[in-house]
Amino acid sequence: MSIRRKELGDFLAMLRSKCIPAAFGFPAGSRRRTQGLRREEVAQLADISPTWYAWIEQGRDINVSGDALDRLARALRMDRTQRAYLFELAGRRDTSPPPADPALPAALLAQLLTDIAAPAYVLGRYWEVLAFNQAAQALFVGWLDAPGPHNLLEYVFLATGARDLVEDWEARARRLAAEFRADSRASLDDPGLEAFVARLAAESPEFAEYWRRHDVLERQGGLRGFHHPTRGHLSFQQVTFRLVDHDEIKLVMLTPVV
Questions:
Q1: How far, in Å, are 45, 156, 178, 239 from residue 140 at the CA level?
Q2: Cα separation, 249 vs 32, whole angstroms
C-alpha cells in the first residue's frame, strides 16, 4: 500500500466521519455504530459501487477516475482546499475546479506594494499587470509610466522599447513564452486565453514561433539585466510568489544586485 493511497483512504474516512447523516438526507437513528456517514451511504451519494468505495478507503491500488473523484467531492461537499487535496492524493488533474475566489481589489494590491522598496508588480491570469509600485514604474520606462492597461507579454513582444530595455531580449522572450504556457496549463481550453494567445501570435511572429514550440518552464527567479535609458545597466534578482487563495495571481519582485 502506497503512502498516497493510505492518505487518500484516511482522508475520505475522516471526512465521512464528520458528516451529519441528517444533513445528507439519512436518518440519524440510534443504531449507528460509527459517527458520520456509512461507507454505503457515501457510495450511494456518489453513485459508485459500495465495494469499490470501500477499496478506496482501504488504500488499495485501484484506478480512481477524475469523474469518480468529482462525484466524491460533491457527495461529501468538499470545499476548494479539500477538493484540491483529494485530486492531488489521487494523482489526478481536476478538470472542473470550483470557481476562483472573488478577485482582490486593485487598490488593495497597490497598497501592499507601497511597502516594498524594490521594483514589484502583480500579474493576473493572462499576465496583465494588476498593480505596481513606483520603483517598478521608474524601472520600466515607456511601459508602466504610460497609461494602462498593461500586460507583460504585450510589452515584451509588441513594444519596441522592450527590446532596448530588456537585456538579452530574445532569450528572455523565448523563456517568457514557455513560462506562460506552463502557467496556463490548467486553462488552455479557456476561450479568453485562446483569444489572447491568437491575437498576440497574429501581432508578434516571435511569440507565434515560440508558442508553437510547446516549450514549458516554471516561472523561476534568477538574474535579470536591463539597459535603462538614464540609469545605465541595472541588474536585479527576480523572485516570484503566488498567493495561496488566488493561484492565478503572481507577485514579482526585483531585488537590486549590488
A1: 55, 11, 22, 17
A2: 46
| Per-residue pLDDT band at 2 (split at 50, 70, 90) | confident
**ω into 149 cis (within 30 of 0):** yes
pLDDT tens digit string along 85-104? Answer: 999 999 888 877 776 655 66
Domains, the chain, ordered by start: 3-90 (1.10.260.40), 106-256 (3.30.450.180)
R_g of the chain computed on alpha carbons = 24
The three cell numbers of residue 192 are 479568453
Contact present, 27 and 20 (Cβ < 8 Å): no
Asked if 45 and 75 touch (Cβ cutoff 8 Å), the reply is yes
Q: How confident is the model at residue 248 (pLDDT cuts 50, 70, 90)?
A: confident
